[in-house]
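Researcher: Please predict.
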Amino acid sequence: MTKPANQTVEAFLSALAARSSTPGGGSAAAITGAEGAALLTMVCNFTRGTADTDTKKQCLESQERFLELSTQDVTAFGNVMAHYKAPDSEAFQLALQEAISVSLNIMGEACKLVPLAEHLMCMGNKNLITDVAIGANLLKSAIDSAHVNVLINCQSSNDPREVKAIAKNFTLVGAKFTEVYNNIRDSL
């Protein structure tokens, strides 16, 4: 398997469109998060100030983490499919928990960038304000996309309650991205 991060955009999209279960929506969610983080990084590169050096470092770290998560999702979902015919087996439940964990990690990684997007909305280079909005929108999409993967996997999980609560909290935090996006859009 070629890691999504090591593929061209065209190759990744072809793999995503292929009649194969991986890469799938989880990898797409992670790549979307990486795109959002990359846009915030670009705004940092055009913004002066020491605070933005720290912001840039955090965005770059998140971008890298999202790329790792895109590969982890491929592996995790492959394991789910390998044990799919025995849904009551311990192996299936463990594979399912790993897939859920990857999705929660995508959501959590995106949520780390909420304060950075809010900071860049106010302090970033004003010529790139739409890039902040688009980055925020992509990060919100990553959260929402990972959330539906959590929900579908919870349907087969033995104990989905706690996971659903964690995922819901991430979506509430992620709603701040919508505020950033709407504030920027409404100011244009």
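Model: Residues 50-82 form the longest helix (33 residues).
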